[in-house]
């Protein structure tokens, strides 16, 4: 029987998923949404704030992003505003690969969902 390297799961109160999974030096975040505001710029800012907080909880940051997947409810109308908020937030020296698509959302008030993976911070020896 082969062994599996350690898997750390954080934010496990939701019965459906973990908010953070760390495995083999990679931090995976679940898809993040926000419905406390009703416009794309506000939702995107709030989602990216949550991304920062979750990455910090995992001991890493947006400077270590590897991938980003973004789902928009209305790509035709919201892509430009999403990109403006994204570009202001992103570390310009450490851009991840990214995909953005239009998708129906789980609830009508959700305009954007973002999921990222990042390299875990390494300990200096």
Automatic annotation (TrEMBL):
PANTHER family: PTHR47328, RUTC FAMILY PROTEIN YOAB. This is Cytochrome C2. It comes from Nitzschia inconspicua. InterPro entries: YjgF/YER057c/UK114, YoaB-like. It holds the Pfam family Ribonuc_L-PSP.
